[in-house]
Amino acid sequence: MPIYDYHCQACGHPFEMLVRAGSTPACPSCGSTALQKCISSIAPAGKIEAIRMAHRRVAAAQGHFDHYSPSDKAKLLQGKKNI
Ligand SMILES: [Zn+2]
Q1: Distance between Cα 12 and ligand 1 center (Å)
Q2: Structurally, how many domains does the chain consist of?
């Protein structure tokens, strides 16, 4: 269930509300349903993707073994020790 930021158009009260599908949110201050849904402060999807790409570049540069299976990883580490 998503939490939305609302701004009451009747009394100007700002609030966050958990909205169930099919239900109409009402202002906790005055009970009005004349509400303006605000954009939440969660990072936009484009920004999240940029962060993810940056993490992947760092992981690739550091040579992470995340794409190997645990047994392959063990073999690789064993091989390094023997050199
Ligand atoms: Zn209100």
Answers
A1: 6
A2: 2
Going residue by residue through the chain, which has 83 residues, state the pLDDT in tens, using 9 for 90 and above.
577 889 999 999 999 888 888 888 899 999 999 999 886 555 556 666 777 787 778 777 777 656 667 777 777 777 766 55
Asked if 55 and 71 sit in the same domain, the reply is: yes
As a whole number of angstroms, the distance between CA 65 and CA 70 comes to 9
- The boundaries of the domain holding residue 61 are 45-82
Q: Both 28 and 52 in a single domain? A: no
CA 47 to ligand 1 centroid distance, Å: 33
Indicate whether 10 and 26 sit together in one domain. yes
DSSP-derived 3-state class of residue 26: coil
C-alpha 25 to ligand 1 mean position (Å) = 11
Cα dihedral value 41, 47, 52, 55, nearest 10:
-100
Measured in Å, residue 58 CA sits from the centre of ligand 1 at 48
